[in-house]
Amino acid sequence: MAKTLLLASAMALAICYSFTKANAFTASGWTKAHATFYGGSDASGTMGGACGYGNLYSTGYGTRTAALSTALFNDGASCGQCYKIICDYQSDSKWCIKGASVTITATNFCPPNFALPNNNGGWCNPPLQHFDMAQPAWEKIGIYKGGIVPVLFQRVPCKKHGGVRFTVNGRDYFELVMISNVAGAGSIQSVSIKGSKTSWMAMSRNWGANWQSNAYLNGQSLSFKITTTDGVSKEFDSVVPSSWGFGQTFSSSLQF
Q1: pTM for the complete prediction?
Q2: I need a surface site. Which of 18, 66, 209, 255 has the fewest CB within 10 A?
Q3: Could you give phi then psi for residue 107, rounded to 5 degrees?
Q4: Quick one: which of 190, 127, 184 has its CA closest to 158?
Q5: Percent of the chain residues topping a pLDDT of 90
Q6: What is d(CA 83, CA 157) in angstroms, rounded to the nearest whole number?
Q7: Which element (helix H / strand E) includes 4?
């Protein structure tokens, strides 16, 4: 009897542990890449971007952001992911700041430049893994005159202040919802929307962090079901009130 209880307890712990691991995004291993910078000393040139976060100051991303090369951007599916980056001092002691690291959020796309070779200007050409970082973030790990430095990076859990935010754009019969300030995995796998008078409907990624619905939802409160790329799902019930209008942003109290 005692052995049976002990075995049952062990199995219960194992099951609990597996669910805990499945629901918690953990850091990846370290990978080699290179990093450059853009956007000016105040990062004003990084606003907007291919993820659609708009003004990165007001949306909470600040200056610790980066544009990802094709190999990392994944057609926008990587928007919102967070990476810890350190300069590879052993490979470049002249331009790397020894022991320094910075964590950035992916907010933009660094397009390839096939007119230049991969090792001389075509830094973001496939299959290179490259970060074109906001200048203030890059200068945390590298010396300005270096321009480009070798780095080591790992994908890490995102830590954000406040809850997930929803910005509703578009027009009648076309809701374009930008979802921002996502913690945990940071990036989104799927989204569903539900009006107060409808059932759940799957949304599709339009571009970057913008998801679209082709339903008429005016005058209804809106709920969302989000699954992040690590498989964690959360429901945001009536996070958008029925009085919403296009162009408005609504903050939830929930976070990943």
Answers
A1: 0.89
A2: 18
A3: -125, -5
A4: 184
A5: 89
A6: 8
A7: helix 2-22
